[in-house]
Amino acid sequence: MLTAMNPLLDFSGLPRFADIRPEHVTPAVEQLLSENRALIARLTADPAAPSWEGFVAPLEDANERLSRAWGQVSHLHAVMDSPPLRAAYNENLPKVTQYWAELAQHEGLYRKYKALAESDEFPRLSAPRRRVIEHELRDFRLGGAELPPEQKARFRAIQEELAALAAKFEENLLDATNAWVKYVDDPTQLAGLPPDSLQLFAAAAREEGREGYKLTLQAPCYLAVMQFADDRALREEMYHAYVTRASEYGPAELDNTPLIHRILRLRQEAARLLGYPSYAHVSLVPKMAERPEQVLDFLAELARRAKPYAERDMQQLRAFAAGELKLADLQAWDIAYASEKLRQARYAFSEQEVKPYFPEPRVLAGLFRLVETLYGLEIRPAEAPVWHESVRFYELRDRSGGLIGQFYLDLYARASKRGGAWMDDAITRRRKGDTIQLPVAYLNCNFAPPVDGRPSLLSHDEVITLFHEFGHGLHHLLTRMEELGVSGINGVEWDAVELPSQFMENFCWEWEVLRHMTAHVDTGEPLPRALFDKMLAAKNFQAGMQMVRQLEFALFDMHLHYDYDPDGPQGVLELLDEVRRQVAVIFPPAYNRFPNNFSHIFAGGYAAGYYSYKWAEVLSADAYSLFEENGVLNPEVGHRFWSEILAQGGARPAIESFRAFRGRDPTIDALLRHNGLV
Q1: Cys bridge to 429: 64, 439, 622, 661, which one at CB 3.0-4.6 A?
Q2: Predicted confidence band of residue 2 (pLDDT cuts 50, 70, 90)
Q3: Per-residue pLDDT at 100
């Protein structure tokens, strides 16, 4: 296939999503791999001393082309999965993984980078370029470049198998989620659910030519039922289906249990090949935290502070459920429902009352207004090829009209899209000769789509999710770095990468921000101040329970990769139970298979890194406190946050960027204060 005909080989501009077909994947991947390997052979055979321009730059160019092409394929696999695309993705994943594993172990490349680091040129390079080279040398060591040949081959085989297992884990979860459907004809079964949810379920049934309502395990449906449905048997049925996805309770071919065991064994083997006692030690090398014990101490200290509040929260919920709801035996499928009823009783408002004030177009306008105010930018709609008709595209410009970056917005849930919310990079900012290549981001959520001409209505939690992902997007888009390896989120320590995203969440609790992003879907009236005050009073409702739940996941993840023996007598579920006995206040039924859908650590990049959410929350809460002290919409502080945090990318250690912004080291106090745990 000619390059001109294959959209995956066109790097002249934005991805050509309208033209990409599954049959383009293999030819594009094979051509790029062939070209890259030929280039590497030439570079390593060159007897001349390596230089940035003669060695690093051409290698970066080649690897970026592969990353961009494969990034488009991976993105489509995540948002518009289909049997032909999945087949093409899985056919080529091992080839791409093998290439990166080969690269990480390539002795010739490693020697060239070491020679460059020891050369007279190195001290004269810019600080970002020196940091790129230092990261490369670190990654060669972590990639097995210093292993003897036999161990190198084994390490490479492990990386390839782990990539395939991660893809399979995510696919099993998507297929298991989509496999469960329930049709409801009797509307009384859905008593308690808000009108926008009922409209969504009815529209889903109509699409299949059916009367009544279609329920699924996708987030907009599952979360609504768990929070609002009065029918306890329905909540239990859906809870059971949700927490047993991709487990032995469903089809054997979708069971993630054997994948979990295999992934843990392979990670442990890889760590030992590199000379580390555990995979957690390997995971922390490029992070801010230095040792697993340090992370466990940090989590234990948070648990010590939070658990008394969590126990109080749970005690109050049990008493309320028994007294007011006649639920003497409070179960896992009752928690969200009873919590919503308690919130209504205590603060005299409900999520249902708030939701009509957050139509998605109004929320977006408010989000854009905030970003424009803080950073002196303009966000404008623009045209670009997209992968689904509901996807939108925007440009980020400075006040003089200069283009800074662009982003896609894919907000709605659908069967072909994996769950959750995430940001990914399409194109990264870098200098190419005399020009600057501008950054492009993908922002993805799973909100309920508009129904019958009415806009999608967001819960306040969903508003927070949108702001969170936009924070990641700004980290990618507002970088000022010109070197690929430290531009945007590249080169940023994993446990600091959540700082800009969690920082953005704070604005969702500011009246000056919220009043401009609300308009009742029927009347157009803004959110009443009295209702906002109730929301604010309820902000830390069950904050203790929420904190220990996150600590449960983080501790489980860290122990799993630090001191758990996959071949020992203790099972994964037994380890999770042990962690729960230390920190949890909610104990789910024995059939709960949470690990089987914990894709953050088994299919994402968070293995031995889930603690990052809490670690970065300390940074983000403390950073936000400077806005609280100087005015939350203060453009001067906004520009300082941009220049010291967002603009820096991975060009310097995250702790240095934090100190440059805040003027001191971070403290835990702001986090505890924001969560009402003081």
Answers
A1: 439
A2: very low
A3: 97
Residue 607 backbone dihedrals phi, psi, to 5 degrees:
-60, 130
Q: How many domains does the chain fold into?
A: 4
CATH of the domain at 111: 1.20.1050.40
**Beta-bridge partner residues of 427:** 440
521 and 548 assigned to the same domain: no
**Is there a single domain that holds both residue 418 and residue 496?**
yes
Reported as a single tens digit per residue, the pLDDT across 520-579 is: 999 999 999 999 999 999 999 999 999 999 999 999 999 999 999 999 999 999 999 999
| CB neighbour list of residue 328: distance below 8 Å, 6 or more residues apart | 321, 322
pLDDT of residue 4: 60
Pick the last residue of a domain from 206, 221, 245: 245
Query: Is 469 one of the annotated active-site residues of the chain?
Result: yes
- Structural domain boundaries enclosing 340: 257-348+543-610
Residue 16 lies inside a defined structural domain of this protein? yes
**pLDDT (tens digit per residue) in 600-609:** 999 999 999 9
Residues 199 and 220: beta-carbon distance below 8 Å: no
Specify the CATH number for the domain of residue 475: 1.10.1370.40
Please spell the DSSP secondary structure of 139-190, one letter per residue: HHHHTTTTS-HHHHHHHHHHHHHHHHHHHHHHHHHHHHHHH-EEEE--GGGG
Per-residue pLDDT band for 351 (boundaries 50, 70, 90) equals confident
Are 508 and 581 in a shared domain? no
CA dist 627 and 321 (Å) reads 39
CB 99 within 8 A of CB 92: no
**Pairwise CA distance, residues 191 & 232, whole Å:** 11
Q: Report the DSSP beta bridge partners of residue 412.
A: 447
Same domain? 594 vs 637 = no
Predicted TM-score (pTM) above 0.85: yes
Q: Assess whether 309 and 366 both reside in one domain.
A: no
- Cα angle value 17/23/24 (rounded, 5°): 55
Q: Do 384 and 494 lie in a common domain?
A: yes
Please report, for the domain that includes residue 339, its CATH number. Answer: 1.10.1370.10
User: Which among 128, 146, 164 is the end of a domain?
Assistant: 146
The pLDDT value recorded for residue 51 is 97
Rounded-to-integer distance, Cα 200 and Cα 414, Å: 12
Q: Is 453 left (phi over 0), alpha (psi -120 to 50) or beta?
A: left
Answer yes or no: do 117 and 9 share one domain. Answer: yes
Determine the pLDDT at residue 3: 53
Catalytic residue among 102, 469, 483, 505: 469
pLDDT in tens, 228-263: 999 999 999 999 999 999 999 999 999 999 999 999
Lowest mean pLDDT among 130-134, 471-475, 615-619: 615-619
Q: Give the position of tokens 């594993």.
A: 101
